[in-house]
Amino acid sequence: MSIPGMRRAAVGLTALAVAALGAVATTPEQADARPKPVDVTLLALNDFHGNLEPPSGSSGTIAGQTAGGVEYLATHLAELRTAAKKKNTITVAAGDLIGASPLLSAAFHDEPTIEALSMAGLDYASVGNHEFDEGAAELLRIQNGGCHPVDGCADGTPYRGAGFKYLSANAFKTATGKPLMAPYAIHKVQGVKVGFIGMTLEGTPQIVSQQGVAGLTFTDEAETANRYARELRHKGVQAIVVLLHEGGAQASTGGINDCVGMTGPIVDIANRMDPSIDVVVSGHTHQAYNCNINGKLVTSASSFGRLVTDIDLKIDRHSGDVVSAAANNVVVTRDVAKDPKQTALIDRYKTVLGPVADRQVGETTEAITKTQETLFGTTLGESPLGNLIADAQLAATDDEQNAVAAFMNPGGVRADLNAGPVTYEEAFTVQPFANNLVTLDLTGAQLYCVLEQQFVTGRTLYPSSTVGYVVDPAGTTGTAADPCSGTRVVRGSLTIGGTAVDTAATYRVTVNNFLAGGGDGFSALTGGTNQVTGQIDLDAFVAYLTAQSPVSAPTLDRIRTTAEVPAA
C-alpha cells in the first residue's frame, strides 16, 4: 500500500479487532492505565547471494544511489537497532543468502557470508532455493558447522556454523515426511511472543539441479504457512511473521516503498494465507516493494544487501496480537563508516584467496550486460552477455563433440561485464554455478519443441550465433502438458548455420547440465540422447574471453519477429 507523503506503508486494526482488545477507555486516566503495546522492530533482508563486497554496475545501485556491501550493511543495521530499542529488535531474512555468490564467498562454500551475517546480528532466515545448490547435506553443514567433506576448512580455521537459525516449513524429507529444518521459531520480546515461519518456494525442484533437491518434497506455501500458524496459535503465539522465499513485482513506476500494480505468486499466496498471519517478508524476485495484501504487510528488500526493510510492530501486551505494522525500505548507502569487523573478515578471506581472483582472463571493448531486450512488449528476448556465453559454450564443444548450436538459460547469467580488463573474479561472478556443459542429440522437431517451451515457462534461452529463428506474436502458446503444440516459432524459420532445420534430422546441441536435467521447466531437453558431459561452464567462458579478446557485445539479431521478417 503506497500512501503519498507518508514514510511507511502500514496495516492497522479493523474495528472488530479493536473491539476484541477489550472495553474502550472512557477517561484519560483509564487510557493511561491500560498497558502500552510492546514496540518490536524487524530488520529484514533477502537474496543477499554472498555479496560481501559492494556489487558493481547496475547491481550496485538502487533508487538512484550506490548501495550494498556487508561493511555498510552491518553499520546500517547497527544504526537502525540504536534508533529502535536494541533489545526489541529482531533481524530476519527471506532466503537466498548464499548460492550464486561472487568468488570471495563461493570459493569457500559461502562460509564467509554465513560468518558475516551472523556477525551482523541476523537471528532467523528462511531457506531459499539457492541454499540447496550444493544439496541438503551441505545446507545442514552450513547451519550446524564442520569442515567441508571434500575441501576441508579452506581458510585454515574451523567453521562453527550459522549464528542464526535457518527455517523451512515446507521442505520435507520424502522418506520420512519430516521437515528438513525447523519449520518455525518463537521469539519473546518483553513478555510477548513473535512467531516466525520459514518458507521455501514450492517450485524449488524446477530451478535447482536434481542432485540439490534429491530426497526432498516441497509443499504449497500458503497451505503450509496456515498449518503452522495454527500450531503457533495453540502455543499462545498471536503475532505471526512468515519469511517467504517467493515474491512478485510491481509496475516500473513504483518506487522502493510503493506497491503499484502488484503481480506475481506472492499475491495469490498472501490472499490464501490465514488472517492470523500479520506480516510476510518475501524475496526471490529481487524486487523492492511495500504492500498491503489481504490485510497483511508484505515487503521485499530487493537483493544483494542494497536495502533493509525496517518494520515496526506494535503488539498488545494482553492478547499478544499485532495492533499495527508499518514498514520502510531503507537504502544501504555507502556514506557511512565501514564496520571494522566486516572489513577484517573480507581482508582475511581475500588474503587466503590469493592472486587467483585478480588474474586477467580477457578484455571487453564495451560493457556487456545481461539485460534482456524487449520482444513484443515483454522482456522475453536476447541478452548481449547471454548470447556471448552461448557462443563460448559452442566454441568449447564444436570440435570436441561436434556441437552445432548452444543455448544458455537466463538465470545462469548473474552479473554484467564492465568495459576493459576482465578478471577471473569478474568472470566467476557472471557464471558462479560450476555447471558442466552437456552435449546431446536433438531432432529438429525436438528443437522446435524446446523453443516453444520458452513461451510456456516465460524464459528465453539465449542462442549461439549459429542459431536464428522468427517468432510470431500472434501465435498460440502451448501448454505445460504439451508445449510442442505452440505456434509461436514460425515453422521453417529455424536455421542452424544458415540452413533450415529439418524436423526429421538430428543435431548436436550444447546446454549446461541444469538445463539438460529439465531445469527452468525445459522438460523437452530431457529427451536428448547420446549425452556427453564436458567441462565446467566457467572454464569455457574464461577460455573464450582469453581467445577472443578484445570481446564486443554480440548483435541481438538471433531471435526476430514477424514484424521484422514478414511472411513470404
Describe the protein's architecture and organization:
There is one protein chain. The chain is α/β, with parallel strands linked by helices and 568 residues long. Helices cover 24% and strands 25% of the residues. It has 15 helices and 28 strands. The strands form 7 sheets. The chain has a 7-stranded mixed sheet, with helices on one face. A 6-stranded mixed sheet has the order 9-10-12-13-15-14, with helices on one face. The protein is globular. It starts with 8 loop residues before the first strand and ends in a 7-residue tail after the last strand.
Rough outline: globular
Question: Strand order across the biggest sheet?
Answer: 1-17-16-2-5-6-7
- Mean pLDDT across residues: 92
Question: What is the beta-strand fraction?
Answer: 15-25%
User: What is the tally of beta strands?
Assistant: 28
Structural class by sheet pairing and helices: alpha/beta
Share of helical residues: 10-25%
End-to-end gap? 50 Å
Brief summary:
Helix content is 24%, strand content 25%. The protein contains 15 helices and 28 strands. Helix 5 (111-119) runs antiparallel to helix 10 and helix 11 packs across helix 15.
Question: Which short descriptors sum up this protein?
Answer:
single chain; 568 residues; alpha/beta; seven-stranded mixed beta sheet; six-stranded mixed beta sheet; 28 strands; globular; disordered N terminus
